[in-house]
Write a structure and sequence with these properties.
four-stranded mixed beta sheet; 423 residues; 10 strands; alpha/beta; 2 domains; D-Maltodextrin-Binding Protein, domain 2
């Protein structure tokens, strides 16, 4: 951690403590779970921030953060069901957290503000992420996200393929994939077994618009259901063409990511958090860039997936403990202060009233590419998967292998999702 960062974090911690206006007991340990782990670009920022808060308050964090995937979401749900939920949780503020709200296991921002009036006063309330259950805010966001296509320039050069531009069409992208495959490389680094959702989002987005993408179908036959079916069939076509890794149906995300960072695969669709993971995994960061995912039909290539989908929740379990209540509010206030949020946000969106103010002079080449990438957006839609429960996602995400193998018809998979929603 640089001296400058340390000073910023220390100032933020002091501001957070003043904001809550409470005498925090030394030696309190709070359990915190986030997705700031693994290859997340903010994993180290989180560790630095936790250390700064601990040093300032004398309290401790027991950290059980893990990379976000379906297994992580299931683990969190199981923890809540078993009564072993954390004191503070950084989690999805959509459907995934519905049952926590319905069961009264997380505390609303309004209830917290009744005792701590300045809680999250630096945020725009309309961007906090109201729960679909009751329209009430329960979480405080840090950084938003976008999903784009990372490019290995060395692989493209070896295959004689130009870097996709904002004008590159889907058909031109397919032609590029074929050239890359013919040159002996893997066109697309993706584990359809573990993280099929990035390709699902963009494949169905290609049959929708920023205004309609976030709509869950009412039936497999309506316009949204047909878009989902068409998108899944496009993923199937990519698989049949051999554009994914040979072991895409059994490989882990880490294994396919290594293909990309070891100059064996050309394209990787992932989120803004992946910048840090790539920077840590490669020797020459100049060999990588970020571009828009090529579009099809009415979707422009510059229409992207993004938003503010996650935030810090304080659980009822911590709130009902007088000592932990103060510590939890202190921790979240610190982690969502202007300076700390700016450090985490980088090139992402925030809910800060004053906006983020990252130091662009400290950006690496991939972060600089991200600035140009985000500046090109003509439309932005949240990920529609965030409107689905884990059970509803299963017929597509857990069974993607059957869809691309042709064992399950795409329309039947969509119908199964909608049946799960009804159940």
């Amino acid at each position: 951690m640089t001296k400058k960062t340390a000073l910023i974090l220390a100032a933020s911690a002091a501001a957070a403590l003043t904001m809550t206006q409470a005498a925090y007991a030394d030696g309190i340990t709070i359990n915190v779970t986030t997705t700031y782990a693994g290859e997340d670009s903010n994993a180290q920022n989180f560790k630095d921030s936790v250390a700064a808060w601990e040093a300032e308050t004398g309290n401790k964090v027991e950290d059980s953060s893990a990379t976000s995937d379906e297994a992580f979401k299931s683990r969190i749900i199981t923890d809540f069901e078993a009564g072993s939920e954390p004191d503070v949780l950084f989690f999805f503020n959509g459907v995934d957290s519905n049952q926590f709200v319905e069961q009264g296991k997380v505390v609303s921002v309004d209830e917290i503000r009744a005792e701590y009036p300045d809680y999250a006063s630096n945020m725009k309330d309309d961007l906090l992420g109201a729960s679909p259950v009751d329209g009430v805010n329960y979480s405080i966001p840090v950084n938003g996200y976008w999903e784009g296509m990372f490019v290995n320039l060395e692989v493209l050069q070896a295959a004689g393929v130009e870097v996709p531009t904002n004008e590159t069409t889907w058909d031109e992208f397919l032609e590029a994939c074929q050239k890359i495959k013919d040159a002996g490389y893997t066109p697309i680094a993706a584990s359809l077994q573990e993280v099929p959702h990035y390709w699902f989002e963009y494949a169905i987005y290609n049959f929708q618009t920023p205004e309609t993408h976030n709509t869950v179908p009412e039936s497999a036959d309506d316009e949204y259901g047909q878009a989902w079916t068409a998108g899944l069939n496009d993923i199937k076509a990519l698989y049949e063409a051999g554009y994914f890794p040979e072991n895409t149906l059994t490989a882990t995300d880490a294994e396919t990511f290594q293909l990309f960072t070891s100059d064996k695969a050309a394209f990787l669709i992932d989120g803004s958090w992946k910048i840090g993971g790539i920077a840590e995994a490669v020797d020459d960061l100049e060999n990588y860039t970020i571009v828009n995912v090529p579009g099809k039909n009415d979707r422009k290539s510059t229409d992207e997936i993004g938003g503010l989908s996650m935030g810090y929740f304080i659980t009822r379990k911590a709130w009902d403990d007088p000592d932990k209540r103060d510590a939890a509010v202190s921790f979240v206030s610190f982690m969502t202060s202007d300076d700390v949020v700016s450090k985490f946000a980088g090139v992402s969106a925030t809910a800060l009233k004053e906006g983020a103010h990252p130091d662009e002079s400290e950006f690496n080449s991939l972060q600089q590419a991200a600035v140009s990438f985000t500046a090109s957006f003509t439309g932005l839609s949240p990920a529609v998967q965030d409107n689905l429960s884990p059970a509803a996602r299963e017929p597509i995400f857990a069974d993607m292998a059957s869809i691309v193998n042709g064992d399950v018809d795409a329309a039947d998979a969509v119908a199964a999702v909608l049946e799960a929603i009804e159940d």
